[in-house]
Predict the structure.
Amino acid sequence: MLSRTADNIYWMARMIERAQDTARLLEAAYRMEQLPGGGAGWDPILTISGQIDGYKVKYDDLTSKDVLNFMIFDLDNPSSIFSCIRAGRENTRSERSILPEDMFESINTTWIEMQGLFYDSLERSGFREFFEWVKDRTELFRGQTVSLMVYDDAFQFARMGTYIERADFTARLLDVKYHILLPPNAVDKGLIDYYQWGELLRSVGGWQAYRSIYKEAPVPSKIAEMLIFSPVFPRAMNSAYGEIVTSLSALRPNTLSLKLASQEHAFLRTGTLAGVLKSRSLHDFLTDFVGFTANLSDQIRSDFMR
Amino acid sequence: MSEKSGNGVEAESFYTTNTYDEMIGRNGALSKAYALYGKWLKSRSPEILKQRNTQADLLFRRMGITFAVYGEQTGVERLIPFDPIPRIISSSEWEKLNAGICQRVKALNSFLEDVYGQRDILKAGVVPQDLILQNSEYKREVEGFTPPNKVHTHISGIDIVRTGENDFFVLEDNMRCPSGVSYMLENREVMMRLFPDLFKEYSVRPVNHYPQELKKTLAASAPEGVENPRAVVFTPGVYNSAYFEHAFLASEMGVDLVTGQDLFVDSDDCVYMRTIEGPAKVDVIYRRIDDAFLDPEVFRKDSLLGCAGLYRAAMKKNVTLVNAIGNGVGDDKSVYPYVPQMIEFYLGEKPILSNVPTYTLAKSDDCKYVLEHIGELVIKETHGSGGYGMLIGPKATKAELETFKEKIKEHPDHYIAQPTLSLSSCPTLQAEGVAPRHVDLRPYALMQSPDKVVVVPGALTRVALREGSLVVNSSQGGGTKDTWVLGA
């Protein structure tokens, strides 16, 4: 398999996952804004996506309209949903000769439909409906990778792309709580907290998962534990690393990237939140994790794509 | 008042036309090939066709069967308009076309082998020596080089026009990187989806084995002694106007689609592609990239699309380039008038398909005649393609004619002229209903050895969608049709 093909397929999966993650993040923020006094503000959204600087170049104020426009439609923002779908579609188009026909056709349809959407049209038809549409279309595409692709090397790169992006996103999302500074005169801090954590859980589709695992009302420490360490919740950092290790082992034994990923996976498999917090803050841990995952992505590149 | 044709269908009620129409001829009677289709068309309302046409557009868009128009914003992809009425060719018409194309391609291949080798045809004075050796398409870099299996013209697209029931002419030969074959295949795919009932009634010869024949052609061209050759399709990249076709053919053949950055030539002068398991040797390159951009070591130094060392590897026969380097001198418009002589010279046969009578403006008699009759003629640049740099006398303004005359006087050898042919028309769906529009035909010939040419029974039919227009190029408002070759 061509190295460039591996690279394209990897980024195809990453960008589609990122489109979905961005939609999930915006949906959570959008819902939080509707809570009385519970709005998280829009800067955490930009911080999580790493796009706060890009935003400030274009806009002076943080308004929901500007942030939504920037995060949904702006092609100058590489993490906007539009940018992600476009990049995912370009990568798929580049490799359409080796991918199942349905995959290019479905992402191409998404791209065509997305070109017909604008802020005003979403205001009329509903932002929630739009976020759901993005989730549907990207899940359809991911479903096609799993149910149509031959389990060959290309499949492994697609899976790695999905899970590297997802591990990165879950860590960034969890870190959002660190960035949310409640206004000092908040009426009921506890209640707002409860709802905010609830939204965070919902944004990763983890509400039901939490209840089935913990069988009790959401508690921040347990939510964090689930998102980091759960071996059974598919959007947990631990699960994501499990998939990454599986794919790396299937590709070639003894690569440096496999070694790195296995180490991290071993830590996530055996670690606990209490253990982590003994030596550092949650924020520091998550920041390190995001950095580590970026390094792993570079290592995969130098192991396979040069 | 209505004149009934032999098939009991009132042909007159389709439309009238002054030129030869492939459905109703000149006298209004349905031709044999269209007999069934005419009846079918009569029994359906144009609304159904329009609705199917919309469906086809959506299908093409969803499948991303698009092309990029140069000069427009990068990354803008457009659909080639598709016409849902097929162009139908009878089996006897096809037999003649097929024989004529094979003959022509064999002669052209012999010509290329000859002019880069012994130059017999130049020595015999059949083709003027200067015309070839001074031609900018003649590549000194491949003098004395014979490609593996002695094939230069692996893939040719021969453009054919028709002016009457039995009058077919070759308009030009394309032996560099002819494109459009994916439309031949996808148009059929879409037609079968839109009109399954028609395919039950008609016996239409299938075309979808083209990629398999192409793969055989590539395998047959491999360097000697290579078992299980690895072939690849070499594309300039995702922004090339024909990228869809490159990806499509690679996918259908099950070979890798590579760009310049995927290839390198090692110190052993062999070509390798970069894979996740390390370098993998490449034996045959179906390149969809012009000679000029192929190898910056030898041709254009500023080419970012090519691969350095490719020429070297090809000359040592470590890799086969498909088509061979230097074919441009065979399909150059200034060489075209000599193809009938080539057929007689190399094959000792009479040409089955005629050329369009052509004036070579480098000849002073021809030039004089053309300048006097410019208003009746079509003038083409010898190196032009895609319908650019062309003058259609009868459609040009006085000022345009005068400007062109000046250009001709300055460089007569840059031009040829031909009579304005009244191209045949085919029924085509228009906003107002079914109307005649002019068409041409590009069948694809695959040369698997110097004496074996395969032409899949089908072609790309291009149609000039504007009323009265003779320009069928997709870059200039042309569309495509599915082309049906009927079984015997």
